[in-house]
Structure formats: structure tokens, C-alpha cells
Write a structure and sequence with these properties.
The protein is of the alpha/beta class. The protein has helices at 3-12, 35-52, 69-72, 82-88, 106-118, 146-151, 153-163, 173-181, 197-208, 225-229, and strands at 19-20, 57-61, 123-126, 131-132, 167-171, 187-189. The strands form 2 sheets. A 4-stranded parallel β-sheet has the order 3-2-5-6. Helix 1 (3-12) runs antiparallel to helix 2 (35-52) and helix 1 (3-12) packs antiparallel against helix 7 (153-163). The longest helix is centred in the first third of the chain and has 18 residues, at 35-52. It is globular, with a radius of gyration of 16 Å.
Amino acid sequence: MNQVAKFVDELASMDMPNIFNPYVDVCEEHDLPDADRLRRKNLTNVLNAALDLNVRTIWIARDLGYRGGRRTGLALTDEAHLDHHARLLGGVDIERATRGPAIAERTATVIWRMLARVREPVFLWNVFPFHPHEPQEPMTNRCHTRSEGRATEWVLHTLIDILEPENVYTIGGDARRGLDKMGIETMSFRHPSYGGQTQFISEVEAAYGLSQPAHEPAAPMQLSLYDHLHTL
């Protein structure tokens, strides 16, 4: 078994209370019957593509959210941007794992707007690789606990060993503090939600040497408190 397959299998083996593990759990309300298999396949394909492309940069947010990564199994990616994710890594094969209309998440729109401008492959991940929710309320978001974070620290360390990135960017203060605790050196972007969109855009532009596009709107889209609390 190669390192990517082993990594995905080990992720799928984890079972924690009040946690949705998209690589083994199936939501009866929204998922296809084989959604867990599809999400494992998607992650496997994305990781292999990142290795083939020698991706040198990782962007890391905090947790998977119920409108994004819980459904797709891919960090910072809602269903409206699955095709964008596929193109980002050279046309990798990614499939939807859910029924009904594709769900969009407002923060993802800002993230993917900037990834389109960066024009280089980036691997996307989270400090906590699963979707933490409130007890008996699976369609809620919460920050992972300290003990949950400790139990999954191996995931990020293993991922970094696999990809060997040159640059690691955190998105938001929670993600930055999480990686600081693990002793992983990072650079940081402001999270684009709850008034942070303009700063996030300017920080990405500075990091990648991007010029301000002529069509960029003068006033940023306002994101709700829900988007501030929600990570993908």
C-alpha cells in the first residue's frame, strides 16, 4: 500500500463522538449510498495529483463545515467549486457524493476567487480533518476541542511528510494558533469572513505578487456571522 492510500485508510478508521468523518460516515439525509467511498476516492485523487504536480504550498483552515467539507471531503471546497478544485490540480477526477442541488458556501467563493488568480496548484487542508458538530445536531458547526485536536495532530504531520511543502499558509487565527501548538512554521492570511475579506485579498495579493484587477469591486461582499463561525 502506498503512502497516500495508507493515509486515507487511516483517516477513515477514526471514530470520535460528535464528529462526522466524511471518509467513513454517510449522512442518510443528504449523501449518496456510497458517499464515503466517493470522498475517499476524491481525497486520494487530489493527494496523488498534488504529488504528481510537485505542489509546494498548502493553505490550511480550521475545521470542515457542514455546507462544505462534510459534503465534499475536500477542505475549503463546497460543491459549487468542485470543478474549480479539479482544475486547480490539473483536471483531477472529483465526483459529488451528495443528492440534490449543489450547495454553495459564501466563504468558499472568496477563497476560490483568489485561487483562480494565484494560478498555481495549492493543496487545501484543515487543522482538524473532520466536521465537528454539536451533540444531536449534525448540521451545526463548532470548533474542535483541545483533546480532538491532540488526537488528530498526527494527520497534519503525516500530510506534511507526504507533500514536503515549501510554504504553509494558515487561514484565520484559529488555524494559525493550531499549527503554532504543533510546532509547524507558517505564514498567515486573515480569514475572509466577518469583515476580513478585504484583508484576506490584499494579503494573498502581497504573498503572490498579484496586481489589483481593474474589475475588483470597491466594496467587499459582506459575509454573515454564520460565515465567520463556519469553516470548510
